[in-house]
Amino acid sequence: MLVVALDGVPFTFVRRLFEAGELPNLRAIAERGPMAQMDTSVPNVSSVAWASFMTGMNPGKHNIYGFLDRHPGTKKTYIPTARDVRAPTILDRLSQAGKRVFSMNVPVTYPPRAVNGLVIGCFLSPNLEKASPSPEVYEVLQGLGYQVDADPWRARRDKADFLPHLVEVFDARMAATRHFWRQERWDFFMTHIMETDRLHHFFWEEMETEDPRFAPAFLDFYRRVDRALGEIIAWIDDDTTLVVLSDHGFCSIRQEVHVNTWLAQSGYLSYTTDAPKGLEDVSPSSVAFSFDPGRIYLNVRGREADGWIEPGPDYDRIRDELAAALAGMSDPDNGAPMVERVLRREDLYTGDAYAAAPDLVLEMVEGYDAKGPFGKPELTFKGEALVGMHTTPDALLSISGLALDAKRPHIIDVAPTILSRLGVAVPDEMDGVSLGDVVPVRG
Amino acid sequence: MADVTPARPNIVLVVLDSVRATNCSAYGHGRLTTPHLERLAEGGALFEQATSVGCWTLPVHASLFTGLYPSRHGVTISAEALSTDVPTLAERLSAAGYRTACFSNNAYISDASGMTRGFEHVDDIWRVTNPRGVSLPRLSQRIKALERRGPLLRPIVGLLRRAKRLRATWKAWRSRKDSGAEYTNGQIRDWLASSSDGRPFFIFVNYMEAHEPYLPPYPFNRRFVAGRFNPWRVVQSAGRREEILRQDARRRAEDLEILEGLYDGTIAYADERVRELTDVLDAAADPDSTLVAVTSDHGDAFGEHGHLGHRLTLYEELLRVPLVIRFPGMFQPGSRVATPVSIGDLFPTVLDAAGLDTGADSDFRSLGHRVEARPIIAENTGPKSIDGLLSRTYRDGDMKLLWRADGKHELYDLGADPGERRSLVADDPATARAFEDRLEGWRRTMEDRRVSTADADYDEETLERLRGLGYVG
Question: From the CA of A175, how many Å to the nearest CA of chain B?
Fold first, then answer.
């Protein structure tokens, strides 16, 4: 089985390009395995979505809720990595079943752990050496010019300069994919392309507004990805199942919304200093704080460092009040509502890692990107560099030989489908449902 | 010239997670739960009053691996990692030329917590075992798929779930599947065979068999459960937790009887696997030059003090654990030590046996010499649940102070009142006061010498990239 992960590529956008006669190779793939629009995790950021993919479970079980989290009972924050994933991934399960597995760059696989095969760490790796499972693999990757991730600061300084850099990172990723695909006959081989997501973050709006300089470059990049897919199709035989998927959709940012600023302005959050930088500056009397994207944590006694809200009726009352207030958050420029829905933890998560879950999660109106910095003076912000944001319902999934187009899968359904295709029992604890028996396409 | 350095002994440290001393026949339990531990003790020493340093896995293992109290090593909440400044037992032994391997069924023993630092070979068995025992993947998948079709199907889904549970109960009752011990022993056997290169070995094993939810494999699941309880009844009790304690007296007593019967079954099964492990070890290396220590990280409560399982408290049902060490070069075969000891003492004991410096900085002492009586301290560090309460105990002789952060301290005479039913704080305020002062003195020393814990993986390069993407503020 060969899995190609295209980070952040939206189903609807790809369909639009098909209609315009673009992306012939991806279209061919979508014909062999009729492509479905797929729902993703909440929150819809890559760490959470891919951890859900890798485990087939909800964050309440795998414990990854975002790019940043706090150690329970402290104000210390950390970046969740593979170390924090509390459940076996499909790599573990396939290894256990004696399958040879390969995985490269799939988010939240850093630090790489021992499997029956090879894991090359993801964008959370501090550097290439740490992303590599062994000195030998490091040498190979270095020789191919492989990089862990494109440098976003180059885009912030100069967008024109970022594009060739992105191409270079993508080409090296493909070279490494080629190298390891040829190395042996893997039972499960997965490569993850982060560059599409990076392209979207910095150029989505330019593409939508048909910017004369960047819109054509945006399409060129997609054509480059499609050519790579063409090469991949040529590698595989009829017995190989090809899976192509993304982890969320994209749209243009209207405004970035500093949720902590709203909490502070509304009297729910205060700081111990005039220039707060992080969680450590939140004052003990605060009611709540927020982490990106739109995760709200109440200051609960016994769970947060200076928690004072008593679990039970007090917590319920305060959370209800806060949820109602958050739902009314509006754009200061024009009074437009910014929050679609306020979701509660019990409606989203279940499992052993539930205690660490956010109390509320904001589902924003499309275009309003909930952000988590502390101490920003302005509630909303529109920058020139970051122009694209994630959306939840618009990921894509295609599995060769499986007609998914009439279905509405969820990203947690992919792991059980992969296991059953490879003849490995789907454990009861997985939240996803296998999407059906895959019939190999012949001829 | 001949090498005069004496060869170092092999070392095997076995933790039977969640096994309390009172349910081991080696400690006088009425049911024959640990015949093999008894046999092991015949070849070594049994410590009659071994006490843990805490009441849950992570801080206790960190103490076993560092020779420091939880207040000092600082790993007191789930997400904290051991500071890289503190050398671990595996690192010390590795530096002395040992081949080191960690086989853990408990997920707290991981790279994330820093517990596996120093082990050459780390087998995260917890990643591949399914503690729930029986799984019926396809059927439950189908039921789940049905559920998504809408609320009208809810009664049918409910019915199907019930039927499925019945079937699962039946299958579980006959299942020989364990919580990973069998697989673990296989892995250890393979590892021992794979690369014996002449170096002595250090093996750490954690077996989760006796951990909640107490599902021993057939036939251990019925060995200690009275025949009048049918499988359905047994599974009903096994699936529930604290609510058992809130039922009427008769039902409550029955449920606790069933649970403890199952618990005894899990211990007997773990004991059987310890036998298998010792057989493997003794086949691989000379028993006289292999130190085998078997202990537990904490016990479990079965209704005592209003609790079930291991949560929050520092009463003896949580603290008192088995400790048996077989190493004829150091311990007289068949000896029994009545002096209270701490399982933290294992760290210097192992180094001592390996002929290494036991570390002047350790909070504990080697048991390889005459064991003097000294105060025994235990801590409940990180609040593990939402109403968690910090507490500590200080024991000198039979007197034990339970210090509580809310000021409601308790004092017990374990000789006259082993069940800790009647607090003597009001009767003997002088002892309570004195113990409290000594405990406070100890706490200050710990605080002064505390090592800072590591923020697992907080890398500037990664952070900077996430900032560039606007993911982190």
Answer: 23
Which of the residues B57, B75, B77, B78 would you substitute to probe the A interface, choosing the one with the greatest number of A C-beta atoms within 10 Å? B78
B341, containing H or E segment: strand B341-342
- Is residue A97 in some structural domain? yes
A-chain CB neighbours of B471 within 8 Å are 45, 67-68, 292
CA distance A232 to chain B (A): 29
> Three-class SS of residue A99?
coil
pLDDT tens per residue across span A256-284? 999 999 999 999 999 998 889 889 899 99
Residue B132 sits at the chain A interface (C-beta within 8 Å): yes
A306: containing domain: 255-382
* Tokens (6 digits) for A64: 């990854």
A355 & A293 share domain: yes
Distance CA B222, CA B230 (A): 10
Residue of chain A minimizing CA distance to B113: A83
Q: Determine contact, residues B247/B218, Cβ cutoff 8 Å.
A: no
Beta strand extents in A299-435 (DSSP E only): 339-344, 360-364, 368-371, 380-381, 388-391, 395-399
- Testing the interface with A: which of B120, B127, B381 to mutate, by most A Cβ within 10 A? B127
Q: Please tell me whether the interface predicted TM-score (ipTM) of this complex is above 0.85.
A: no
Q: What is the pLDDT of residues B159-204, one digit of tens each?
A: 887 787 777 777 777 788 888 899 999 999 999 988 777 899 999 9
Q: Counting Cβ atoms within 10 Å, is residue A267 exposed (0-12), middle (13-18) or buried (19+)?
A: exposed
CB A12 within 8 A of CB A249: yes
Cβ–Cβ of A92/B128 closer than 8 Å? yes
- Confidence at residue A114, expressed as pLDDT on a 0 to 100 scale: 84
Task: Report how far residue A346's alpha carbon sits from residue B72's, in angstroms, rounded to the nearest whole number.
Answer: 36
C-alpha to C-alpha distances, A100 to A21, A53, A189, nearest whole angstrom: 38, 19, 9
- Chain B residue closest to A66 (CA)? B471
What residue spans of A236-308 are helical by DSSP H?
259-265
The token pair at A142 is 């270095």
Task: Residue A320: give its domain's CATH number.
Answer: 3.30.1360
A-facing residues of B in 298-327 (CB < 8 A) are: none
Q: Which residue is closest to A307 within chain B, CA to CA?
A: B386
Q: Kindly state whether residues A323 and A279 are assigned to the same domain.
A: yes
